[in-house]
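Recap from last week: sequence in, structure out.
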Amino acid sequence: MARWCAREGWPVHPLAPAQKTPPANCADCKGHHAPATCPCRNAGRWCHGFHAATTVPGLIDAWWSAQPRFGVGVSCGPAELVVLDVDAHAAQVPERARLLPGIPIGPQVDLAGLATGFDTLALLAALRGEQDPAADETTLRVRTPSGGLHIWYRNPYPATRYRSSTGSSPRTALAWQVDVRSDNGYIVAPGVRTAAGDYVPVSAAREPAPLPAWLAAELKRTGHVPEAVSASQAPSGLPVPMRRSRPATKAAERLLEPLLAEVTACRTVREGASFTEKLNRAAYTAGGLVEGGHLSGADARSLLAETARTARPHQERRNFMVIESALSAGAQRPLHPRGSS
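Predicted structure tokens:
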């Protein structure tokens, strides 16, 4: 499967045996450095999950020869993929305003029976007069072990980038219980077998169809397309100061490392470890470092998500919400650590 994905032009990376998450990093990566500064990729290691993804046959053969039980993850952004991850988990249905962010749902709309992402995605399609993506037989769709569905689309205009998100995000979401996997995100490859079950393609389509124009418009409307303002677009006509976006400085790493270590230590304490408080503190600090120009936003999110996943692997959605909220709060107070240049 890894070689097949690579031939499709989709960079792949290992998943831990029988799991849907990447394997642990090597011992050299225990210092919680940012993926952009990690030497492991050049050394041919699989550390840092989707950041290590590749299409190089020799490297793929080496990884899966070393551990044949590895599953396969696909790094969506570099593969030019936009995947809708429709959840079917039992959850408390939120208020109407959060079902389809930005779209008022009046009391005249009967929501009886609405329970999962399948329902909110179908509702979004119906309101737009379009086909429900979950029933789109022209594209690759993969049934997940939990009863959800991965709907794979190809980005036909690679110059337009799409953020990844979760359907429960208070900031960026397409629909409740519908996650988006694209830049800075990965998806489990079709055919992967986990302890929870198999990822099984449904219908005959085995290739992603182009992202429908109406879905592209919805993703833009809901904030999934990063905005880039050029100097010529500045309302005042003056140059727009560009925020620095670079790998983490050594001073930033020194400041974050003990905070991330506290989060990681929660792995051995299932309850009463103040995990949320510690993750919030680390993400708040990271937000200040990002705003101060000492750490890129992408590296901050990846580093925090990876650390949180190590300690609490079965609550990624909650981890995401804590991280996004704390990053936003921390960005209100730019941080400049001692020893930074």
